[in-house]
Design brief:
Layout: E1 9-15, H1 20-31, H2 53-56, E2 57-63, E3 72-80, H3 83-86, E4 108-114, E5 125-127, E6 138-141, E7 147-148, H4 155-158, H5 163-174, E8 181-184, H6 190-202, E9 206-211, H7 217-222, E10 226-229, H8 233-242, E11 245-248, H9 252-261, E12 267-270, E13 288-291, H10 294-299, H11 303-319, E14 325-329, H12 333-340, E15 347-351
Parallel strand pairs: 8-9, 8-11, 9-10, 11-12, 12-13, 14-15
Antiparallel strand pairs: 1-2, 3-4, 3-6, 3-15, 4-5, 5-7
This protein binds NADP nicotinamide-adenine-dinucleotide phosphate.
């Protein structure tokens, strides 16, 4: 059964450099180890397509194509602005990205069109994940990967129910912390606060969190995380020496110092480099040094196993207090990105119904 959508056009964010030949040229240039340019050749002004998200993203109108068989159409309601959405726009993972693409990795919406057996989904709230970017009014996605949202989970929570919660859950599954001391960096973030709170539920003896902005301290305390200022080098070194497991998302100087201070038998898990700098291992490395990327886990996950993750997540998400939010109408998407950059700020969400 088909249902006519309310609008024949969609609004979405897309990366620059959409023209295919330009994208191909860029890709071939990146294959060549040392491209030689003649003096007459000028770089195309649209290249590279990656960069500061305020420059590399733009809002565009596109015609809504007929829904392909086997997919469902979701009208988006809310999507958060996460580091995970913006970091790829800067080009960090350009080798993994095929342009053109729409930004956004998570969010919540309502099914407005579906064929055949999936018609029963029409009207239900889902997370339309692992398909095209979620920062658009309509997302056509695979129903096997769309996650039904329980009725009692409000939109503001559901919209943030994937990247950070699933990453935290998978890290604690791979690196269990019962009876252990845990150290977090970037501990004011959504991901780290979930990690810390659920580590305590799993039986961690103590969770210490290194924060950058003092606005985060009250929430960390509420969740049982012991706050340590990023300025307090002595306390950070002591916490690193005591830690059995560190989950680090900042890298750079802080990540490197923590790794250097950790003892034999402990493990340092790096899951991002928000500082933009790598973790440099010390000459004598005592801790295990591991990396976590949710996408590696997803690559091996069948749709059935994928859905089971959310059966585990929803009960946990019902209980945890999420960071406060600031909601922006779609037209104000640039303001949402600027708000994202404010240290100590609330999590920006984009409202696609506006
Ligand atoms: N590897 C994976 O699979 C995976 C999956 C999910 C998330 N992540 C990573 O988890 C991290 C947190 O994401 P989120 O959505 O939870 O973040 P969030 O709630 O949006 O918060 C962003 C946090 O990053 C901090 N921050 C930003 N730039 C920083 C810098 N240069 N140095 C130190 N701190 C900085 C902010 O500090 P303030 O407190 O001062 O504002 C804030 O606490 C990101 O790095 C994200 O990429 C990785």
């Amino acid at each position: 059964m088909n249902v006519e959508t309310a609008s024949p056009r969609r609004r979405r964010f897309a990366f620059r450099g959409r023209k295919k030949e330009r994208v191909r040229r860029r890709e071939s240039a990146s294959i060549s180890p040392s491209p030689i340019r003649g003096p007459h050749e000028k770089p195309c002004p649209d290249l590279p397509p990656f960069g500061d998200p305020l420059d590399a993203l733009h809002l565009e109108d596109a015609d809504l194509a007929p829904l392909k068989p086997g997919l469902i159409r979701v009208e988006m309601e809310l999507a958060p602005v996460n580091p995970s959405d913006l970091i790829p726009v800067t080009g960090v993972y350009s080798h993994l990205i095929t342009l053109p693409m729409v930004a956004g990795y998570e969010g919540v919406g309502r099914v407005v069109e579906a064929h055949g057996a999936h018609a029963a989904l029409i009207g239900s709230r889902v997370l339309p994940l692992r398909g095209p970017g979620t920062w658009q009014r309509y997302v056509d996605c695979d129903p096997a990967l769309a996650v039904p949202v329980p009725d009692d989970i409000e939109d503001l929570r559901a919209a943030r129910g994937y990247i950070n919660p699933l990453a935290a859950l998978r890290m604690l599954t791979r690196y269990p912390v019962a009876g252990k001391r845990v150290l977090l960096t970037v501990s004011g973030s959504s991901c780290a606060t979930l990690l810390g709170h659920w580590a305590l539920l799993q039986g961690a003896v103590e969770v210490v969190g290194v924060y950058r902005s003092s606005e985060r301290v009250a929430r960390m305390r509420t969740l049982g995380i012991v706050p340590v200022s990023g300025e307090d080098a002595g306390a950070i070194e002591a916490a690193a020496r005591a830690a059995d497991v560190t989950f680090d998302a900042v890298g750079g100087d802080l990540g490197s110092k923590v790794l250097a201070a950790m003892r034999m038998g402990s493990v340092f898990v790096g899951y991002d480099l928000l500082s933009g700098q790598p973790v440099v291992p010390p000459a004598i490395l005592r801790a295990g040094f591991e990396r976590f990327h949710l996408r590696d886990d997803l690559a091996e996950m069948t749709p059935a196993v994928w859905q089971v993750q959310f059966d585990r997540l929803w009960p946990l998400l019902r209980q945890v207090e999420f960071p406060e939010v600031q909601v922006f109408v779609l037209e104000d998407w640039k303001a949402a990105i600027r708000a994202f950059r404010e240290a100590g700020g609330a999590k920006p969400l984009i409202d696609f119904r506006s």
